[in-house]
Design a protein that fits this description.
Number of strands: 6
Radius of gyration: 23 Å
Helix content: 25-40%
Structural class: alpha+beta
Length: 194
């Protein structure tokens, strides 16, 4: 056998091995990047909940409802600026879009709602889950406009299963018709503070 022919075979085997290793490491890197996006989104949701709790502890009362979306969203502008006695904010570093939504750099907005924790039914009409009583009512931190893939990954990470309308994570399509490419991600926070 010629030396050159053997060298060519060795080179091809080495290239095949390097190619296979590149595919494997590329897939691992992609998975790590996706997981870091989930961790960052969950951290943002936790940050919103902690800001609301800090506000309550400092002020001694709950935020009122937004005038923009009356009876549904809380007045999250109070987390950024307020004249209330005891206020030690800002509790979040976001700009104000309106009194119901804060502009978060990655997502379209963040907000807080008071909603019941019973299993939501599709299509989700959030008004049907308003807290008219204090039974089974919780604060919900919301990320607007997460891609459906990321939203499902957050649901799987927190709840251990992908079910849009049950568990600590709830996912709602903005159009409520299952055709949107993104979802609003709701994470259940503490029970309604009295």
């Amino acid at each position: 056998m010629k030396k050159g022919a053997m060298f060519g075979l060795d080179a091809r085997i080495a290239l095949a091995i390097f190619g296979a290793l590149s595919v494997i490491s590329g897939a691992a890197l992609y998975s790590a990047i996706q997981h870091s996006k989930v961790i960052a989104a969950v951290a943002t949701l936790n940050e919103i909940t902690k800001a609301m709790e800090s506000y309550f502890l400092d002020i001694g009362e709950d935020m009122g409802y937004s005038t923009t979306f009356a009876g549904l969203h809380l007045d999250v502008e109070e987390l950024v600026s307020s004249t209330k006695l005891g206020w030690k904010g800002p509790y979040l570093p976001y700009a104000v879009t309106n009194d119901a939504i804060l502009k978060e750099p990655v997502y379209n907005g963040v907000s807080i709602l008071k909603l019941r924790s019973i299993d939501w039914v599709f299509p989700v009409a959030l008004g049907a889950y308003n807290c008219t009583t204090e039974v089974d009512c919780f604060y919900w931190a919301v990320l607007d406009n997460a891609s459906n893939g990321l939203a499902d990954a957050i649901d799987g990470y927190i709840d251990g299963a992908k079910d849009r309308h049950k568990g600590k994570i709830r996912l709602v399509y903005p159009s409520n018709d299952n055709t949107s490419t993104y979802s609003h991600v709701f994470m259940q926070g503490p029970p309604i503070l009295k």
